[in-house]
Specification:
By secondary structure, the chain is an all-alpha fold. Helix 1 packs antiparallel against helix 2 and helix 2 packs antiparallel against helix 3. The chain is elongated. The two termini are about 35 Å apart.
């Protein structure tokens, strides 16, 4: 494929050709064509690559539109649906970074919330899957951002709840453990300053001490193994998230 060639050459002509072919395929196909989902997913992926190299608001908006169309063509039972929603949430968050419009951040959080809950649903075999720990950490950070804009306590509470679970699922050998502890400390202090709950201050102090010990002993030198992470993630419970007034996309 031309896009695969672009990944190696990074020649702008290759990605432009790939985008043109994909757009033409979509335009010439009937509404319920079997390849519709694949084409829109490819279009979104290519535009994300292009945006990462040369940020352009129009490319980002087109990527968001393509990802929405991809989701429209994705059946509810598709195992990749939660991942497609996650991609849309990340794109909307990127748009928020450009626009600073709170509605864009609310849209990103709404999609993120949906992807977490969808990922937790039992599969046809009755087994429960789980969203990735890095994604949960990302969502927690977005929620804290949203609270800073809206001052809705639900967003802050959800951020703290997720941050606690992220730490429970993170290996003590994970290199980024200190940063994840730092995020929870920040959220707890914000809630203490806004609500005055001494329990939050005490919990923050406990994690500050833990972070200092972690830094002193230099235990975060290797990444967590995939097996350990997979086993730990099974304990994640979406019931810890307050649904409340989470904005939904129409």
């Amino acid at each position: 494929m031309i896009f695969d060639k672009y990944r190696h050459t990074r020649d702008v002509k290759d990605i432009e050709a790939a985008l043109r072919i994909t757009r033409e395929s979509i335009k010439g196909a009937p509404p319920f064509h079997a390849d519709r989902q694949r084409w829109y997913h490819s279009l979104s992926t290519m535009l994300r690559y292009q945006y990462a190299v040369k940020p352009n608001k129009d490319d980002l908006k087109e990527a968001i539109s393509a990802q929405r169309e991809c989701l429209k063509s994705t059946i509810a039972s598709d195992p990749d649906r939660a991942k497609h929603i996650e991609t849309l949430a990340r794109l909307l968050h990127e748009l928020y970074k450009l626009t600073s419009e709170v509605s864009d951040l609310q849209a990103a959080v709404a999609e993120a919330h949906g992807s977490v809950l969808l990922a937790m649903r039992p599969n046809p075999g009755g087994q429960r899957s789980s969203p990735s720990v890095p994604w949960l950490a990302y969502v927690s950070s977005m929620l804290l951002e949203l609270y800073d804009r809206t001052k809705d306590e639900r967003e802050l509470n959800n951020s703290i709840s997720l941050a606690r679970w992220v730490l429970r699922l993170t290996s003590v050998k994970y290199p980024g453990l200190g940063d994840r502890i730092g995020h929870l400390i920040k959220a707890l202090i914000v809630r203490y300053e806004d609500q005055g709950n001494e329990a939050d201050l005490q919990e923050a102090a406990t994690f500050i001490s833990r972070k200092r010990k972690l830094e002193a002993t230099n235990t975060t030198t290797t990444a967590a193994t995939a097996t350990a992470t997979s086993e730990a993630e099974q304990s994640y419970c979406p019931a810890t998230i307050e649904v409340g007034r989470v904005p939904r996309m129409g």
